[in-house]
Amino acid sequence: MSVSFVVPALALALLLPVPLVAQTSPPFDPLTRAEIKALRQGVERCWNTAKLSRAALEADIVVAVSLRPDGTVIEDSIALIKSRSGDDEAVAQAYDAAHRALLGCGKTGLPVPLDEYATWRELEMSFGNSGRTK
Predict the structure, then answer these.
(1) Which long-range contacts (CB under 8 A, 24 or more apart) does 81-86 make?
(2) What is the percent of the chain with per-residue pLDDT over 70, rounded to a whole number?
(3) Which of 27, 49, 60, 83 has its CA 20 to 30 Å from the CA of residue 7?
(4) How far apart are the C-alpha atoms of 34 and 23, rounded to whole Å?
């Protein structure tokens, strides 16, 4: 799978860091396009859709994940936040694939700027069929 605006495959889109407290403006700078691309590619290399049903390939889901300061994934933090399409079984399959991708690539650390921990310590990631960044 690759991510671009024209690839007709499942895409992974980084949405926004999740603030711990509601604020009018975040206390940190957002990730740059290059940092988002690196993070997206870091998860994509573990995103395996070979065994997913057609319905699961078409599901759009949003997953929350928390990271440690070294960029490794906190395993029990991964959670399905919402699904925008797909039946329950398709969403469950898509979530399982996203979960495996985050754990697989996140065990050694995702490619994030380590000096900007506040920016990416809690993320929402969209795994979906849309093929474009949200």
Answers:
(1) 81/124, 83/59, 84/60, 84/128, 85/58, 85/59, 85/60, 85/128, 85/129, 86/55, 86/56, 86/58, 86/59, 86/60, 86/61
(2) 74
(3) 83
(4) 25
**DSSP-derived 3-state class of residue 81:** strand
86, 60 in Cβ contact below 8 A?
yes
Mean per-residue pLDDT for 117-133?
A: 76
> pLDDT tens-digit profile of 3-54?
222 222 334 444 444 444 444 445 567 888 899 889 888 898 898 888 889 9
pTM over 0.70: yes
Beta strands in the chain (DSSP E): 11-17, 60-66, 79-85, 122-128
Q: Which two tokens stand for residue 23?
A: 């604020």
In angstroms, rounded to a whole number, what is the distance separating the alpha carbons of residues 34 and 4?
13
32 vs 28: CA distance, rounded Å: 12
